[in-house]
């Protein structure tokens, strides 16, 4: 028999596939139970924005046609929102697509890319898939002022001649930890101009406007800065797969050369163009998240479970023992959370913030299992 794994390029042979959250339909099949809630993939409990739903319906009749490969309307709306030129925007099939494009465009086997321990699992996959070296830097400890976050001085020290990319998620997934403006800005300033800093802001919208660290405001200052954003979280469009990055036009031009010509589908383009104008929905998403986060954090406090203070739409909870039996018990009670042993956190589960009703149920289950 042919060994196809051996035929794969060396980087691909070594990488571990991404493990997604368990779908509701799978748990229904496995346990034959109904009324399941999924708090495993940091999705929006409100569903898509109503403006996006309207736009999707209007776009349905155009489905025989290819999408606008340049995504003009969406880029125009994004350019207005961010106050930048359309030439600075690259659209992606989710921001995941943009992360992969960055690795494909800027890394080859003689290069390395740096990222933090306990950060988004797609970074090492994207880096290894193109045969480059992935440099994982130990995260800060649980006792740090910001537990399980990026150790920026250590990341800086790891930069060498071969470094092309640095991936930083702020806020970070799966920990929820976040970097303050001063330390992040000082770090970006200290990075050589020919090393691209990718600031992944998938969860930016969940921090209050006053607390928000918005890297897009620094784009004029740093030509080596790339900001990635998504419509999957606060805008409730995860199923559509649409995200983007902001960068200087030269970087956007490079990414544009290798992206699939129609990498964002027409319904996603229409939905995102409408969603970006739906301020009311965004405000509601943030409010529901803040309320749910409070409920879950209070429940963890009551049970003596430590967690990482989070500025995302999820909480990383430490059960101080192997979390898999707890995960399993919760599944049997119809609640899907996310194990993070694959991130090196076997005692933790990541719990997405759902609707108020879902969080009431989550906290009841948590108290049942851990109380
Ligand atoms: C930190 C981070 N970045 C990027 C993504 C990718 O999101 P999407 O491809 O849905 O835009 C995720 C998804 O969970 C994430 O957690």
Descriptive notes:
It catalyses: L-histidinol phosphate + 2-oxoglutarate = 3-(imidazol-4-yl)-2-oxopropyl phosphate + L-glutamate. Keywords: Amino-acid biosynthesis, Aminotransferase, Histidine biosynthesis, Pyridoxal phosphate, Transferase. The modification N6-(pyridoxal phosphate)lysine is found at residue 233. The chain is an alpha/beta fold. The chain folds into two domains: 4-47 and 280-370, Aspartate Aminotransferase, domain 1 (Alpha-Beta Complex), CATH 3.90.1150; 50-277, Aspartate Aminotransferase, domain 2 (3-Layer(aba) Sandwich), CATH 3.40.640.10. Helix content is 39%, strand content 15%. The protein has helices at residues 4-7, 10-14, 24-31, 50-59, 72-82, 95-106, 122-129, 152-158, 181-190, 249-258, 266-275, 279-303, 324-332, 356-370; strands at residues 37-38, 89-92, 112-116, 133-137, 163-169, 196-200, 225-230, 243-246, 306-307, 314-318, 335-336, 338-339, 348-352. Strands 2-8-7-6-5-3-4 form a seven-stranded mixed β-sheet, with helices on both faces. Strands 9-10-13-12 form a four-stranded antiparallel β-sheet, with helices on one face. A two-stranded parallel ribbon has the order 1-11. Strand 12 and strand 13 (348-352) form a beta hairpin. It is globular. It binds pyridoxal-5'-phosphate.
């Amino acid at each position: 028999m042919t060994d196809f794994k051996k035929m794969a390029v060396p980087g691909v042979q070594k990488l571990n596939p991404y493990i997604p959250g368990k779908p509701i339909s799978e748990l229904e099949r496995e346990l034959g139970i109904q009324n399941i809630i999924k708090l495993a993939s940091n999705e929006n409990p409100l569903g898509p924005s109503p403006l996006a739903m309207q736009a999707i319906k209007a776009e349905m009749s155009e489905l025989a046609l290819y999408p606008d490969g340049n995504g003009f309307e969406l880029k125009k709306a994004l350019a207005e929102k961010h106050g930048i030129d359309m030439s600075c925007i690259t659209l992606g099939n989710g921001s995941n697509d943009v992360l992969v494009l960055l690795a494909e465009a800027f890394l080859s086997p003689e290069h390395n890319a740096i990222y933090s321990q306990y950060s988004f699992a797609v970074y090492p996959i994207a880096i290894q898939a193109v045969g480059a070296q992935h440099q994982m830097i130990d995260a800060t400890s649980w006792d740090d002022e910001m537990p399980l976050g990026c150790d920026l001085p250590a990341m800086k020290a790891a930069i060498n001649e071969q470094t092309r990319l640095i991936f930083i998620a702020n806020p970070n997934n799966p920990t929820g930890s976040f970097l303050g403006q001063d330390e992040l800005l000082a770090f970006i300033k200290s990075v050589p101009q020919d090393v691209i800093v990718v600031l992944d802001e998938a969860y930016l919208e969940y921090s209050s406007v006053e607390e928000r660290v918005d890297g897009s405001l620094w784009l004029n200052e740093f030509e080596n800065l790339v900001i990635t954003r998504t419509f999957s979280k606060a805008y409730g469009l995860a199923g559509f797969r649409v995200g983007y990055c902001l960068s200087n036009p030269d970087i956007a031009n490079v990414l544009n050369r290798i992206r699939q010509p129609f990498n964002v589908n027409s319904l996603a383009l229409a939905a995102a163009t409408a969603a970006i104008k739906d301020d009311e929905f965004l405000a509601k998403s943030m409010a529901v998240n803040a309320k749910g986060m409070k409920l879950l954090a209070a429940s963890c406090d009551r049970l003596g479970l430590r967690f990482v203070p989070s500025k995302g739409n999820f909480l990383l909870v430490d059960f101080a023992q192997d979390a898999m039996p707890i995960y399993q018990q919760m599944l049997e009670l119809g609640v899907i959370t996310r194990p993070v042993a694959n991130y090196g956190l076997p005692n933790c589960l990541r719990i997405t913030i759902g609707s108020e009703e879902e969080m009431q149920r989550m906290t009841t289950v948590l108290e049942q299992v851990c109380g």
